[in-house]
Design a protein that fits this description.
The chain has 89 residues and is an all-alpha fold. It is 70% helix and 0% strand.
C-alpha cells in the first residue's frame, strides 16, 4: 500500500479527516513563516533576536507540533514585515 492509498483509507474516517484538516492551518502558517524568513535572509537566530526570544522557539515554531499564541505569531509577522490577519471562512 502506498502513501496515497493509506491516506485515502484514513480519510474515510470522519474523525481522522477532521483532525487532519485542522492541521492544515498550522502547516500553512509554518510554511509562510519559513518562506518569509528566507526571503528576508534571516536565520532562525536572527529572527528570534528581532522578537526577543531564543532560536529554539523559532525552531519549535517551524518544526515541532507547537501551538503558538496569537501574540507570538504577531511578533513574528511584524519582524518579517508582515501583518497577521485571522479570518473565519
Amino acid at each position: 500500500m502506498d502513501h496515497n492509498e493509506v491516506k485515502n483509507t484514513l480519510m474515510q474516517n470522519q474523525n481522522v479527516k477532521k483532525e487532519y484538516n485542522n492541521l492544515d492551518v498550522m502547516y500553512d502558517i509554518k510554511k509562510q513563516i519559513i518562506k518569509y524568513r528566507i526571503e528576508n535572509n534571516l536565520s532562525q537566530k536572527e529572527l528570534a533576536e528581532k522578537i526577543g526570544t531564543k532560536q529554539s522557539a523559532i525552531s519549535r515554531l517551524e518544526n515541532d507540533d507547537y501551538n503558538p499564541s496569537i501574540e507570538f505569531l504577531d511578533k513574528v509577522a511584524n519582524a518579517l514585515g508582515k501583518k497577521l490577519e485571522i479570518r473565519f471562512h
